[in-house]
Amino acid sequence: MTNNLDLLINFQPEKGTVRLGDDSVIESCGRGTVKILAKTSDGQVTPVYLQRVLWVPELGCCSLLSWRAIVSLGKGFSLRSSGGDMNVLRENKTEVIWGKLEDQEYVVQEEKELARKMTYQDWHEALGHPSPNYLKNDKYSNTSTIPSIPKDWQCETCITSKSTKRKPEPNTKRCDTPFELIYSDLSGKFSQQSFGNSWYYITFIEDCTRYAWIYHINAKSDTVKVPVYP
Ligand SMILES: [Zn+2]
Fold first, then answer.
1. CA gap 207, 170 in Å, rounded
2. By Cβ atoms counted within 10 A, which residue in 8, 48, 89, 173 is the most buried?
3. Please, which residues have CB less than 5 A from ligand 1, an ion?
C-alpha cells in the first residue's frame, strides 16, 4: 500500500479499509500496479510489478510491502532472513526483492531512475546558444559538469538563425529577338482550388517583348501539356 497516487499504474478507485500493525483502521481509496526497479543483494536490478497495491491517502509518507499479500498470490514465494537482510525469493530460490534493515525497518532496495545526463547541446541551448568560446569550463568556476564539445559539433538553430539570404542582382539586359529567351515559373500547390478547379499556375514571360502567358493547371504533370507558343 502507498499514499503516493503517482506510483499507481492502471489505477481503479475502490473504497476499502486497512488494519495497521497498531490495530488502527484507515481507509483505502483504490488500487493499481506499482513498478519498482528492485535491487537484489548481489547488485542486480530487475523491474518488479507489484499488483493490487492499495492507495491509502492517510498512510504516512512511506509505502508498505505486505508479506501476507505476497503469500496470497500463491506463486511459491518464500522469505529468507539473515543478519540485517530480508529477501523475497522466487520458487526457484532466486532473489527478487531485498529488504535491508535501516532504523528498525526493512527497506526495499530500489534503483532510482536517474535523470538523463545533460549533453553539450543541452547546455548550449539552456544557456541561450552561446558560442563554444563561452562554454569552456575555464570560463566558469562551477561548470565541471559541462561535457567537452563533441567533434564536428554544430547547432542547427544557430546555423539557421545566422544564415543570410542573398538576393540575386537585378537583370538589366534584354534579348534583342523575340522568343530568344522565355522565363517560366510554376506555382502551387495552393490550399484552395481556383474557380476553374486548378491547383497550380504556370507563367511564361518572353524576355524581349515582356509578353506574358499564365495557364492554370490541375497537376504538375500537366506542365508538359501547356502550349508554350500559343
Ligand atoms: Zn545553438
1. 14
2. 8
3. 129, 155, 157-158
Q: How far is the CA of 167 from the centre of ligand 1 (A)?
A: 25
How many residues are present in the chain?
230
Q: What is the C-alpha separation between 78 and 89, in angstroms, rounded?
A: 5
Q: Residue for cell digits 501539356?
A: 225
| Domains contained in the chain, CATH given | 5-108 (2.40.70), 121-162 (no CATH), 182-225 (no CATH)
pLDDT tens, residue by residue, 2-49: 988 888 888 999 999 988 778 888 899 999 999 888 888 888 888 888
Q: Is residue 202 within 8 Å of residue 187, measured between CB atoms? A: yes
Instruction: Identify the residue with better confidence: 84 or 156.
Output: 156
3-state secondary structure of 34: strand
Q: How far is the CA of 115 from the centre of ligand 1 (A)?
A: 23
Residue with cell 559538469: 145
Q: Cα(83) to centroid of ligand 1, in Å?
A: 55
Distance, CA 8 to ligand 1 centroid (Å)? 39
